[in-house]
Amino acid sequence: MKNTIKKQQGFTLIELMIVVAIIGILAAIALPAYNTYTKKARFSEVVQSVTGVKSAVEVCYQTGNALADCDTAGNGSVSTAVGMANVGTYVSTVTAVDGTITATGSAEVDNKTFILVPTEVNSGLTWSSSGGTCIAAGLCD
């Protein structure tokens, strides 16, 4: 009697279908996460756009002006910084009113806003991010 061992020559159809199903499930999970990551990366331009305006408001405040005078209409250096901040692919507008800076993103980042609020502490300013719609969307911290 001869012992014959049958060698497996390839994958069965069911094995291939299981692999395709697993890849499909992984893709369904990964694509929405990827979209969130790209929006967050794009929104970092909006967050970065306020740094020049923030510096201009701090200089305005340190030169003896009240925070109410440190806005787009009341101070030339703040107005110039706002004008330069409005340049960007994902930045729609940047405004400064009474020292509070509001940056709005473009449609690519769902028009979300980032707000920086100054607080006077020991003849200086501290900044906090509050009230912006980007926080609820998970685009900024």
Automatic annotation (TrEMBL):
<dbReference type="GO" id="GO:0043107">
    <property type="term" value="P:type IV pilus-dependent motility"/>
</dbReference>
<keyword id="KW-1133">Transmembrane helix</keyword>
<comment type="similarity">
    <text>Belongs to the N-Me-Phe pilin family.</text>
</comment>
<protein>
    <submittedName>
        <fullName>Type IV pilus assembly protein PilA</fullName>
    </submittedName>
</protein>
<keyword id="KW-0281">Fimbrium</keyword>
<dbReference type="InterPro" id="IPR001082">
    <property type="entry name" value="Pilin"/>
</dbReference>
<dbReference type="GO" id="GO:0044096">
    <property type="term" value="C:type IV pilus"/>
</dbReference>
<keyword id="KW-0472">Membrane</keyword>
<dbReference type="InterPro" id="IPR012902">
    <property type="entry name" value="N_methyl_site"/>
</dbReference>
<dbReference type="InterPro" id="IPR045584">
    <property type="entry name" value="Pilin-like"/>
</dbReference>
<keyword id="KW-0488">Methylation</keyword>
<dbReference type="Pfam" id="PF00114">
    <property type="entry name" value="Pilin"/>
</dbReference>
<feature type="transmembrane region" description="Helical">
    <location>
        <begin position="12"/>
        <end position="34"/>
    </location>
</feature>
<dbReference type="GO" id="GO:0007155">
    <property type="term" value="P:cell adhesion"/>
</dbReference>
<keyword id="KW-0812">Transmembrane</keyword>
<dbReference type="Pfam" id="PF07963">
    <property type="entry name" value="N_methyl"/>
</dbReference>
